[in-house]
Amino acid sequence: MASVAIDGPAGAGKSTIAKLVAKELQAIYVDTGAMYRAIAIYFLQEHLDPEIPEDVEKVCAEVDVGITYENGVQQVWLNGENVTARLRTEEVGNMASVSSAKQPVRDKLLQLQRDMALTHPVVMDGRDIGTHVLPNADVKIFLTASSAERARRRYEELTQKGEVCDIQQIEADIVKRDLQDSTRDIAPLKQAEDAFYLDSSELKIPEVVDIILKKCRETKAWK
Q1: How far is CA 139 from the centre of its chain?
Q2: In the chain, which residues have pLDDT < 70?
Q3: Which of 43, 63, 98, 195 is 20 to 30 Å from 79 by CA-CA measure?
């Protein structure tokens, strides 16, 4: 099955772009970050520590993460509960950055992600899709933007929801997560050697989508 791997740091717009690309390609969008965030929710609600091996083992033994689609929209389930609306908080994102670096957590979700790519054309985004999850993806994109631009986007997203937030703190959190994600021992965030580097700092969403679609249509898999 044809596949597109979109990797990049937090706040680069991977999910937004991947959804639109998948729609144009008539493929399934797989938000791997949402799957890790679902597990992060469990860590938080059960007051477990990802730095304690016994807690990590407990989580991996007890959680069941699934993905369904309703009217073409991805829904993420944690032990039978739809947690989609809870995935995008800063607290969950920060926990996911730490817990997703643990090998048992990654092993828990890796096979599910690969199985989806075997049975459906997919556009999958995350931190290590092109380097680890789908190393043979037909198209690999490394999507990024400056930390200041990513903070601005996140600030606008939160304020539009009526949340009070500090843009400087948001950028500080982004820089911290970049460091965590790129220096972790297990599947660190990095650009795959055969990935196309795409900086979206000065680009609008339709421009980014068009660039990726052009890359897809240059390959036999997506023609």
Answers
A1: 17
A2: 223
A3: 98
